[in-house]
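Hi all, posting the design record for the shared folder.

TITLE: backbone redesign
STEP: 1 of 1
STRUCTURE INPUT:
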């Protein structure tokens, strides 16, 4: 069976900021119901050692980011997101309970990440590329590759088609009512990962309350 086609999308910084300003107040609830299993699986599959240089691209409200910071108090965990509204929620989540010297949050675009080549041991990215035009997947993944150290790992989660009949409602919604999902839709990233030069180490399909995700751990060759 041939893979399902990826729905077309365009991308605008201002449109995305406006979309996520509208949903930021309830996004945590959505994430707990649909994304939490995938996020926790990323943490389980990705070895994170204290003292690492870690980057999360598209931190959202900081659910994964806060866990990464807590696991890496002797290292530096960087986080970036295009949405100021989502970043405000992430900063409030960290609050005063986590030492500010071990993390930094900033606004910015995944298309041009403001970090040094080879800076990071780990890069995490969850539920972002399913919003991007498919022709840009390899470009963004190549940017991740540029920032990883040789042997560094990318931990990736994204909205996918799933393999259960109960998953089918979500591609239908993405096609017919895209605004309900802020324009996100099911994607497949294996080809783009290989095009960017990654070696795929692990890949799993996950379904949470019928929402289908894929998690991938990929390595930058040494």
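Okay, here is what came back for every position:
SEQUENCE:
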């Amino acid at each position: 069976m041939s893979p399902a086609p990826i729905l077309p999308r365009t991308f605008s910084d201002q449109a995305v900021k406006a979309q996520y300003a509208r949903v930021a107040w309830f996004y945590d609830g959505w994430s707990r119901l649909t994304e939490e299993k995938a996020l926790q699986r990323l943490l389980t599959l990705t070895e994170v050692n204290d003292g690492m240089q870690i980057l999360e691209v598209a931190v959202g409200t900081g659910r994964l980011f806060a866990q990464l910071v807590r696991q890496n108090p002797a290292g530096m965990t960087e986080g970036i997101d295009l949405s100021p509204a989502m970043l405000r929620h992430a900063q409030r989540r960290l609050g005063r309970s986590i030492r500010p010297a071990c993390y930094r949050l900033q606004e910015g675009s995944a298309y041009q990440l403001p970090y040094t080549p080879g800076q990071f041991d780990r890069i995490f990215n969850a539920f972002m590329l399913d919003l991007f035009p498919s022709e840009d997947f390899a470009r963004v993944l190549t940017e991740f590759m540029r920032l990883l150290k040789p042997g560094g790992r990318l931990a990736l989660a994204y909205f996918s088609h799933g393999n259960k009949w109960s998953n089918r409602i979500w591609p239908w919604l993405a096609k017919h009512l895209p605004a309900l999902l802020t324009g996100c839709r099911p994607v497949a990233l294996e080809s783009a990962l290989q095009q960017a030069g990654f070696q795929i180490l692990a890949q799993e399909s996950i379904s949470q309350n019928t929402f289908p995700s894929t998690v991938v751990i990929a390595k930058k060759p040494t």
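COMMENT: Residues 13-219 form a domain with the Rossmann fold fold (CATH 3.40.50.150).
Let me know if anyone wants the other runs.
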